[in-house]
Write a structure and sequence with these properties.
Length: 188
């Protein structure tokens, strides 16, 4: 990402349309919806999704452990209750594998596969923005900050070492500026 260029984020309606694109009747559709949902609701990086081990997810306790995230740091996250059924459905049918999300043959998913999957679903959803898996992380972080205004907790959720990395979401969530400008009558 170029310095001073704001990342792309999705609006609520775009997120909902994106998540409707995978067909949960098929194992890959169920898996893909679970991947995108986890990225959108926990702010996970692509590498954190592909490296997630079955033992890193405890659906009973609603916990997820990211091991060796960026900077080789571990962090524990809460899994939102509304994702439990989706993740449990995938857990029940997933092939035996060292990875929680894998191919149907149990192999590790490639970054490229997930990048293409997100792009394909975005096109099907009619999203005209150029998005990637990292867009889902940006969308989560922006929504989290809009709702909580808690930048320090967001920093820890995202696994940033430096708060300055996290402050971009203050700019992206700058609804005060938007609202102020909308209510400005101008000179006409």
């Amino acid at each position: 990402m170029r310095k001073n260029k704001l990342p792309v984020i999705l609006e609520l309606e775009e997120v909902q349309n994106l998540l409707k694109q995978s067909n949960k009747r098929y194992p890959t559709g169920l898996r893909n919806k679970a991947i995108m949902s986890l990225m959108l609701h926990c702010g996970l990086r692509l590498s954190e999704i592909t490296n997630l081990k079955p033992g890193n997810i405890n659906l009973t306790k609603g916990k997820l452990r990211v091991e060796s995230g960026k900077g080789k740091k571990d962090r524990d996250l809460a899994i939102p209750d509304y994702l439990n059924d989706l993740l449990e459905a995938w857990r029940r049918i997933r092939p035996k594998s060292n990875y929680f999300f894998s191919t149907l043959k149990g192999r590790k998913l490639s970054d490229r596969y997930i990048q293409q999957m997100v792009k394909r679903y975005a096109e099907k959803a009619g999203i005209e923005k150029k998005i990637s898996p990292h867009t889902l992380r940006h969308t989560y972080a922006t929504q989290y900050y809009k709702q909580t205004k808690d930048i320090e907790t967001l920093r820890r959720i995202l696994g940033h070492s430096d708060i300055s990395t996290t402050t971009i979401y203050i700019t992206l969530a700058n609804i005060d500026v938007e609202n102020g400008m909308k209510s400005f009558k101008g000179f006409l």
